[in-house]
Design a protein that fits this description.
This protein is α+β, with helices and mostly antiparallel strands. 18% of the residues lie in helices and 33% in strands. The protein is built from 11 helices and 33 strands. The longest helix has 16 residues, at 167-182.
Amino acid sequence: MRNRVFAVIVAAVLFALFPAGGQERELSSERMPIVGGPLRTDGGGAFSFAILGDKTSGGEGKWPIYDRAVDRINLLAPGFVITTGDHIPGHMEERAQWDTEWAEYLEHARRLRAPLILIPGNHDIANTECHKFWKDDLGVTYFRFMYRDCLFLVLNTEEERFDGRGPVWEKMMVFAEDTLREQAGVRHTFLFFHKPMWADPRFVKDWARLETALGARPYTAVAGHEHYLCAEKRGKNLLVIQNATGGGIGLSGVKEIGCFQAFAHVKVGKSGVSYAVIEPEGGIWAPETAPAWFRHAINHQTVTLDADMPKGLGSAEVLVKGKMALTNSVDQPITVRIEIDSLDASGWICESPAMVEAELAPGQARTVPLQFRVPAGRLPTPPAIRHSVLYKANWLQAEPMPMERVNVAPLYPQNAWRDVARWQVAGPFPLGPIDTSKLPGDPAGANPNFFKRFGPEDGFERGRTYEGGAGWRAADSCGNGLVNHNAVLGTADLAAAYSACAVFSPSERLTHAVVYADNFAQVYVNGTLAESAQAFGAPGGFVYVPIGLREGWNRVVVKVINNRGDWFLRFLLADPSGDLRLNDQAL
């Protein structure tokens, strides 16, 4: 039964359809998630709308920021307001908790004088139960509408919860392509979705489809999810990751990194589209104030890791010699601070300084050596290597970004790592509740099914089905070792899936894979669990899994365990000789 408080608030708020007979009614035959409507499009010409960023994920207690943004938006009097998703903490399966959290959000949101259009985020729709709650209470999860000869196309990046990139997702993508084809003559197109499809490696193919459908039309794309401001131009088209508005964020005085609370005010007129980023009680900024190239420079270009071949593999102690290339690719002098983190927990013995600072002028580069001695039994758990950058008297902490980077002490040369381009995936297999308080030390106590053999541990077998009817399906890597299980299987909470490939080696040898999983992983080689390298909370996040290859074909299987929400795998295999063959099926 619905929470009484929620019911009262919903009764006080109008979830409106578009005016009868208007073009908007024609484009949106189902109920849009709109609060405080109706959305009126009387007249033409210039108009404006506002954008509220993410509110949840660290936003507890930050309602005053959101409220001040609402007050300032009311003074601007936009035609409507639209969100970037993540309104509530979410991740529930119970109706009562959903009702309570939405009641709190709507209590603040209904202070807006303009209609508020809601876009679902990964906290709002973390699973199929939340998807149903959204549709029951709020309306459709993706939609389109026209506003004064501009097309607004809203997609749901969480539509993959059901079947990955199967029929449910495909229906939405076809809807988007059909809409763009049918509305080719509009003066401007605005695309909205929660996760930035153009910047998230899990959506590379989907964004390519949208770009093709967009063609040469002028458009603006807006997303949230990341909580910082980050903008770029592709041609004349603006793509913006919008700041949080009361959501969790690590504040910074460097506007270029985009870590400040704000909302957006967009004006559409004869001269085109203008996009202003507005702090609730502060300045007004162009979105390009926080350019995507600056964030990329800080996170990806300032410090890059490499290594020589390790010495002593298979012996009691391994010598790991690496290097860190430092580069200043921004327009100001910087100081780079590099820290080797969690050394004691990792068991790696650092023979070079554990903390280094270096000053670099614009364009300057230098190399810093790394050296470790590692007991063989501790090789799987490398320490994290973190860096921060002093820029304009402010320290900027580089983001971990595990889907894109490997931020641990390097074991092999960078050019030795190989992506498995295609896998066979089986699952999901329900596991039951996971007691995360017992991890990483007691995985069997956290859930004994972590060690249950469901069958796929032995490798891919064409046509075979397992417990619950799970079978094998082919899945492509997103590149750089990333396998997006949401895209393959949809979202399955408290469940496991198996990703299998085959590796042909011309000779018997020992190599390693570097593995990261959201949330946990185990690796089986020819049916045997690699006990020493289970990813249940390694100090650096990544583990180096020993892969003992026999001559000929070998079966490598990764069991990925999901707690809740999104799940993915990073898996790169070391092939320093360049003579391994990878296949998703061969035995």
